[in-house]
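Q: Convert this sequence to structure tokens.
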Amino acid sequence: MFGHKAGVKAVRRAVSTASQLGIQSLTLFAFSSENWRRPDKEVSLLMELFFTVLQRELKLLDKNQVKLNIIGDISRFSPRLQKQIAAAQEKTAGNTGLILNVAANYGGRWDILQAAQKLAEKVATGEISSSQMTEDALNEHLCMQNQSEVDLMIRTGGDYRISNFVLWQAAYAELVFTDTLWPDFDEQAFRDALVIFASRQRRFGLTGSQIEEIRAI
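A:
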């Protein structure tokens, strides 16, 4: 729990850095749909920490025009926590600064599945035809449907995997892996990752020469 609490400070630093740099959207993985498998005591303490942080940080987020957006299946959370989440999102709904997506009880596969189920229901009721089940239509039902696709995904802690995180949205994301543990992830570590991102050529299926031609226009 000491590590989880230290991680909250890293969240604060990341949000501050993203806001200062004019980043439009920041998504943080707080609790995955697989994390329920952890010991009951740890899960219980994490839920309490989540509730406490929402209460404590809300005024600061609102003051700095941060719009809070909780993504994931929150139905499994306690009514008390669900109420706090709703209140926090409502409080910051009109803010025009950084969009802070906090993934809680979230999984990339779940996100795609729930979007597909919503489309299937529309087909079943005749609202749309099966031919209208396009990538764009699916994207409209994902958790971050009104936001741009992920440009950069940073994985801390020395792990070389994306752990079922925003699978659809990160199709063309640049991946940066760092040995820095999340509680130690500070402004400099964030900026270092952005420098690596800026040094890469993003081609989106094109060749390097095609990208250079486009840039020259």
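The CA atoms of residues 123 and 129 lie 5 Å apart.
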